[in-house]
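Obj.: predict assembly geometry.
Materials: sequence records (below).
Method: joint structure prediction, all chains together.
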Amino acid sequence: MNDIPAIKSHDIILASQSPRRQHLLKELGINFTVRIKEVPELYPDYLKEEAIAVYLAKLKADAFLSELNEHELLITADTIVWVNGQVLGKPTDYDDAFRMLKILSGTMHTVYTGVCLITQQKEKTFWASTQVYFRQLGDHEIEYYLNSHQPYDKAGAYGIQEWIGYVGVERINGSYFNVMGLPIQKLYDELTNF
Amino acid sequence: MNDIPAIKSHDIILASQSPRRQHLLKELGINFTVRIKEVPELYPDYLKEEAIAVYLAKLKADAFLSELNEHELLITADTIVWVNGQVLGKPTDYDDAFRMLKILSGTMHTVYTGVCLITQQKEKTFWASTQVYFRQLGDHEIEYYLNSHQPYDKAGAYGIQEWIGYVGVERINGSYFNVMGLPIQKLYDELTNF
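Observations (raw structure tokens):
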């Protein structure tokens, strides 16, 4: 199924250290390489919800622009958790992760992923949102999860594909893979129409 | 987290050949064994939607009842796809699978999983439903999927965690793991309260 023109005619590069994103892109059956650059994830205060994720995805892409050759198509992405009018990013330590999971417990939050596709000639950004409903989590459950997993590289301090997602997430509304970090069906569509 | 009384005081048995169900239960961190019995999946014509899945889960459980010892807690499950007032079960062959995916293409269907927990003393059934939205699938995509995967053990002829799920499912409303065959969060709750 790699007869998609954008995929056939480009070398695909994923600019993400996230093993989840790498796994998801692999599942599409696309050949790609990974290229990493540290970009400080700073954004203007006035941005909200999906605008933050899109801004950061574009920021990451622009950092690579001058280095792309004419055959390369670069994919960047940024995922944020939005709850009660605030962003939860990656937790700084155990206490911060505990605090985040207490905020998510017993309520709905929205996961936004912004994605940017960029070549020398063209740039396209898009995003997806998924509502995630956690049941009330016991403190002992949060402690067990944080001690058995180390979700410090994950926005909101959880992986939906990990124990806390299995026992705590009642339902979602939207794309499951978006919560993992990449709205893979939309990405496939966007690559098809790039 | 195996301090759940029903789990501590019972030997858990999963009566399912499905590698997805076995994987999901393992992710809960529960020790269990697998026991298989062939039970013809027949149900009365008048049943619809979740009633079919619950009936079949109970049918599978009852087949084991006389063989359970006092320490055993058996889990059975049945998953069906319901679309346009009809059930899609497991496809019989390539043409049947192709027909099913053409029905699912471009529309919403509902996945129901019925689950039965049974011991010598007690029986509990419950179910979960998830709405799944497929975009329009091209015939070449269906062909590619059927040739690269063999979804003949899956209700509705697809696995949401396989290529066709990645590229074709726009969104879901409900539990993702329920679509894979086991509503794992609800199962955890029911085991906690058994």
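Conclusions so far: The longest strand of chain B covers residues 72-83.
To do: check interface contacts against the pulldown list.
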